Automatic annotation (TrEMBL), chain A:
Source organism, top-level taxon: Bacteria
Pfam families, per database record: ABC_tran (PF00005)
SMART domains, per the entry: AAA
Transmembrane stretches, start-end: none
Coiled coil: none
The name this protein goes by in its record: ATP-binding cassette domain-containing protein
Organism: Shinella lacus
Domain ABC transporter: from-to ranges: 15-258
TrEMBL record, chain B:
InterPro entries: ABC_transp_permease (IPR001851)
Species this chain originates from: Shinella lacus
Record bears the keyword NADP: no
Transmembrane residue ranges: 20-41, 53-73, 79-96, 103-123, 129-150, 171-194, 225-243, 264-292
UniProt-listed PANTHER family: ABC TRANSPORTER PERMEASE PROTEIN YPHD-RELATED-RELATED, RIBOSE IMPORT PERMEASE PROTEIN RBSC
Membrane topology: Multi-pass membrane protein
Superkingdom in the source lineage: Bacteria
Name under which the protein is recorded: ABC transporter permease
Length: 260, 328
């Protein structure tokens, strides 16, 4: 479960950024940031407001184009023109507002934009959706993640905040081939629901996917992260582990009161 | 989505769950209610002859309401419905009266209507202008332009092909016009696309949450464009049906088509905020309006009362929609 670093065989790096810069006119959002996500780990990204967390994530998922620098997926340079490119490359993102159509049912939301068509002429000529298969796959995905829902036919708006988050995470897990990026997944949740979502994130790691977790919630971060990437002033200030550093250490690095 | 399960009785646990599960159940009850009242008060109401007339009177608004439903599902609104349809009748009528082939003339008129829909869609999706303003502008432009072209007056269009949709056929003792059959066919076809294909699923997604639709990779602008294009095509077909009912091209016709089509959609349970509702509801809504007008006319009540009752129904429908949204 926990990540062991072996100095002799370096761990496989899934996603990497080298010296990425992003400027808007005179404003520098990213001042040459490095980033490294290893296979099978949960990497938390923390930082004060304006430290460049979301700009970094947007650069990694193709939502914006870096001014300079390099991004590598499995060691090969990539140039995402948009979020869709990143998705095709196997990177799934769980957005803070979840990106759901509330009036549509759970299965429809899981497959939104990636609907399955019926086999044969019905699908190819008549463009008929395979609703049955989408429901079955949705049910399987939710039970694989051990996430309980009242019914897969429910509209998303009928679910609690935690359940909605569960559906969003399940969608990412269902389609991600390499890694899942989550933006503040527990921000709007109560204690019990937060616990459920953290459990979901662990089960995604168990399936062999790497996870990037953006969070303000230090106890959550220390609960599940293998490593913590700390942003400060548009750069990576340090990467630490919950074993070697305390929450106070991390906050001190975030605010510039200490170095790693 | 749930409209698919609207008609067959289900063994769901509670009545409440069943009503929520089938959004067109409420409008259907209203329709049945009106039918029962009119049938009890006037024996002529249920005569097959009268029912056939109700369907014929519903055809134009019923078909226009299909396009209106698509636009409203994307959280838009179309105020150019009637004007585009009139454009179709005038283009087809002028060409035929000039001696052109009627089939080609009608086909060209449908194309012109489709282009008008495309123009509205282009302004909405390309320039991101509010649909309300875009279609209001098109309404003004078309109304003025059509009066200029036809020098203000209506003209007769006498051609067997253009009026073919008004011809009747017997279906088990029931007299139907081809226009009525075309209306039901259009409902079936568009229902299929809306409920059984990716295209329809994305219409709902865009109406529900356009930002989410964009994030999951749906080409939102292109999709909106396709919705307005299909709506324009449907208004063009409605123009053919209109010529079948009255063989006249009149630039001043269909003044109430906008409100009537919106009424049918809203009474049918489709939300003006987009993303909820569907075509089964709209068909029921159009029939409610048709039944109401027919029943009150049979009872000898002043036509003004028809507009009054319809107005009340619209406000009740929108209020119910608003309340159900607030609960969520």
């Amino acid at each position: 479960m926990s990540f062991e670093t072996n100095t002799e065989t370096p761990p496989h790096v899934v996603l990497e950024a080298r010296n990425v810069v992003k400027t808007y006119g005179h404003v520098t959002a990213l001042a040459g940031v490095d980033f490294e996500l290893r296979a099978g780990e949960i990497l938390a990204v923390v930082g004060d407001n304006g430290a460049g967390k979301s700009t970094l994530i947007k650069a990694l998922t193709g939502a914006l184009h870096p001014t300079s620098g390099e991004i590598l997926l499995d060691g090969a340079p990539v140039h995402f023109r948009g979020p869709l490119d990143a998705r095709h490359a196997g990177i799934e993102t769980v957005y803070q507002d979840l990106a759901m159509a509330p009036a549509l049912d759970i299965a429809s939301n899981l497959f939104l934009g990636r609907e399955l068509r019926a086999p044969g002429i019905l699908g190819s000529i008549f463009r008929r959706l395979d609703k049955k298969r989408m429901r079955e796959e949705a049910r399987r995905a939710m039970s694989e993640l051990k996430f309980r829902l009242p019914s897969i036919d429910n509209a998303v708006e009928a679910l609690s905040g935690g359940q909605r988050q569960g559906v969003a995470v399940a969608r990412a897990a269902l389609f991600a081939r390499k890694l899942v990026i989550m933006d503040e997944p527990t921000a709007a949740l109560g204690v019990r629901e937060t616990g459920q979502v953290l459990e979901l994130i662990r089960s995604i790691r168990e399936r062999g996917l790497a996870v990037v977790l953006i969070s303000h919630n230090m106890p959550n971060v220390f609960d599940i992260a293998d490593r913590i990437h700390i942003m400060r002033l548009g750069r990576r200030a340090a990467v630490v582990t919950p074993k070697t550093h305390s929450m106070n250490d991390v906050v001190a690095i975030m605010t510039g009161a200490a170095t790693a | 989505m749930n409209t698919a399960t609207a008609s067959p009785p289900e063994t769901s646990p509670s009545l409440k769950a069943r009503i929520i599960g089938a959004p067109s159940a409420g409008p259907l009850l209203v329709l049945i209610g009106f039918c029962v009242i009119f049938a009890l008060t006037n024996p002529r109401f249920l005569a097959t002859h009268n029912l056939s007339i109700i369907l014929q009177q519903t055809v134009i608004i019923g078909v226009l309401a299909i396009g209106q439903t698509l636009v409203i599902l994307t959280a838009g609104i179309d105020l150019a419905v009637g004007a585009i349809c009139v454009l179709g009748t005038i283009v087809a009528g002028k060409l035929v009266n000039l001696g052109y082939d009627p089939v080609l003339s009608m086909g060209f008129a449908v194309l012109v209507c489709t282009a008008a829909g495309l123009a509205a869609g282009g302004l909405v999706s390309g320039l991101r202008l509010p649909p309300f303003i875009v279609t209001l502008g098109i309404l003004g432009i078309l109304t003025a332009a059509l009066r200029l072209i036809s020098e203000g007056g209506a003209f007769a269009v006498r051609d067997p092909f253009l009026s073919w949709t008004g011809n009747t056929m017997k279906l088990g003792g029931f007299v139907l016009t081809y226009g009525v059959l075309i209306m039901f066919t259009l409902y079936a076809v568009v229902w299929y696309f809306l409920n059984q294909t990716k295209w329809g699923r994305h219409v709902y997604a865009i109406g529900n949450n356009p930002e989410a639709a964009r994030l999951v990779g749906i080409p939102v602008r292109r999709h909106l464009l396709s919705v307005y294009l299909v709506a324009g095509l449907i208004y063009g077909i409605a123009a053919w049906l209109a010529l079948g009912r009255i063989p006249n091209a009149d630039p001043n016709a269909m003044q109430t088509a906008n409100l009537d089509s919106i009424t049918a959609v809203v009474i049918g349970g489709t939300s003006l905020f987009g993303g909820r509702g569907g075509l089964i509801g709209t068909l029921i809504g159009a029939l409610i309006v048709g039944v109401l007008r027919n029943g009150l006319t049979l009872a000898g009540i002043d036509p003004l009362w028809q507009d009054l009752v319809t107005g009340i129904l619209v406000i009740i429908a929108v209020a119910l929609d608003q309340m159900s949204r607030r609960r969520n």
